[in-house]
Design a protein that fits this description.
The chain has a 4-stranded antiparallel beta sheet with strand order 2-1-3-4, sandwiched between helices. A hairpin with a 2-residue loop joins strand 1 and strand 2. It contains 4 helices and 4 strands, in the order ββααβααβ. By secondary structure, it is α+β, with helices and mostly antiparallel strands. It has one domain.
Length: 115
């Protein structure tokens, strides 16, 4: 199986990472148990993160969705970003689906480096 992970970072490093798949599974199990799935705490919506990125363009936010295998946790991704932020950002740009940020071929020479 695979897991869909939402990642958001700016020029200072990773800011947000969460598994969309895990949230969906938690909501499904709550419904099967007869509990209210709306009581499961959710992070801000992706639309809210996109608005934040648009409002703070000086920070050069990038929002991505990435498909991972089940053996790679969100914590593994966060730890990798802490150890090697620039390398992780470049890898996510290669394999992920960009929701916000300038990752066009013509902009590769203008990429923002993570400090």
């Amino acid at each position: 199986m695979s897991r869909t992970v939402f990642l958001m970072w700016d020029c200072y490093g990773l800011e947000t990472a969460f598994s969309i798949t895990d949230l969906d599974q938690q909501r499904m199990w709550a419904m099967l148990k007869g509990e209210d799935p709306n009581k499961i705490p959710l992070p801000l919506s992706i639309a809210a993160y996109k608005i934040r990125a648009q409002a703070n363009m000086q920070r050069h936010y990038e929002l991505y969705l990435v498909e991972t295998t089940d053996d790679i946790s969100v914590d593994d991704i966060v730890q990798s970003f802490e150890k090697a932020p620039q390398q992780m950002a470049e890898r996510i740009r290669e394999i992920g689906h960009c929701l916000w940020g300038r990752r066009l071929k013509r902009d590769e020479d203008k990429q923002v480096r993570i400090r």
